[in-house]
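Chapter review: from sequence to fold.
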Amino acid sequence: MAGLDVGDKRIGVAVSDGLGITAQPLGVIERSGVQSDITKLLALLSAYDLTRVVAGLPLEMSGHEGNQARRVRAFCDALAARTGLEIAYQDERMTTRESERILVESGVRRAKRRKVIDKMAAVLILQAYLDAHGSR
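The token string follows.
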């Protein structure tokens, strides 16, 4: 299983272990256009036998979907259409802040944090999904 933190500038990517218990960071893709982004994502994930992708859904604090959530769904619809992968969504409210907190507490410098925060957010998204749904 793969986890995605889809932003306007970058996509953070994480993968689960073979048993679907833990999530690990994999990489970050710089956005350049939906089809190009999907090509880069598929290249990054080519070594993994995936059937499902978990995407963070950036709900508003009220729980409603806003413009960013619609953009994430549009990207994931294009990914599913091109690959046939099942897409699941996980509420991602506060994952970027939580990622920042974890990295600060770990002593990661600001310049380095900017490079890894998106894949850390993808890890938190995927781990939350795995914890809630198991390895189904």
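Two observations follow directly from the output. The longest strand covers residues 23-30. The chain has a mean pLDDT of 90.
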